[in-house]
Amino acid sequence: GARGGPAGAGMGLPAAVRDRVAAVHRGSALPERLRLYDGWAARYEQDVAALEYRAPHLAAASLSFAFPAPRAEARLLDVACGTGLVARELHRRGFRCLHGVDGSAGMLEQARSTGLYQELRLCVLGTEPLPAPAEHYDAVTVVGALGEGQVPSTVLPELLRVTKLGGFLCLTTRSNPSNLRYKAELEAALGQLERIGAWQKLLAQEVEYWERATTEEESTRGTGYISGVVYIYQKCPVPHLEEG
């Protein structure tokens, strides 16, 4: 019958999971989207497990590779931390001083229950500044939130502000069709900051199997998965002006 269609994208994903994912990616207004995340929080981790969502693992692995030892003392800010998936991966790699911010109180409640964060704050990125002084963090991560209808690419200078000179920024975005316009905007903004010497690019890693697609149209070449990208940047130390 209708259920036994081709085993393509999103098939084998429960319809409820597909609907919840689609709902947060639809360009709804911010208050509505934050309410959706609040409501999703309790089921979020089992849903992303069903999606085989690899971004937290890939991002943490890339950041660890770039990051100089020792890690235990390094202060990290996990932006749009959600339920703490990224913190779990960072913690496994020896990072111990983790702060998180998210726009959803429901998500922060889940993150708090992991016990992995020293500090958690409510912050709606893109409409308010990060709750941190300048040059406060050794690294800043934004995994999964930079996308169409989510966090605007205009937040990059604010991420840079709270990063120490020589500190690292780990960002991800998706490369599926409905996010390509956003991705182009993001890459233009990343490149602009590089040209003015604000940071330098260490890595831009395209990953084919990022997570399972929720629709056929979003799938990469019929694989049933969407692709994504991990970026690592290092904030440039202020160049000393030569005398004379």
UniProtKB/TrEMBL annotation:
<dbReference type="InterPro" id="IPR029063">
    <property type="entry name" value="SAM-dependent_MTases_sf"/>
</dbReference>
<feature type="domain" description="Methyltransferase type 11">
    <location>
        <begin position="77"/>
        <end position="170"/>
    </location>
</feature>
<dbReference type="Pfam" id="PF08241">
    <property type="entry name" value="Methyltransf_11"/>
</dbReference>
<dbReference type="InterPro" id="IPR013216">
    <property type="entry name" value="Methyltransf_11"/>
</dbReference>
<protein>
    <submittedName>
        <fullName>MET27 protein</fullName>
    </submittedName>
</protein>
<dbReference type="GO" id="GO:0008757">
    <property type="term" value="F:S-adenosylmethionine-dependent methyltransferase activity"/>
</dbReference>
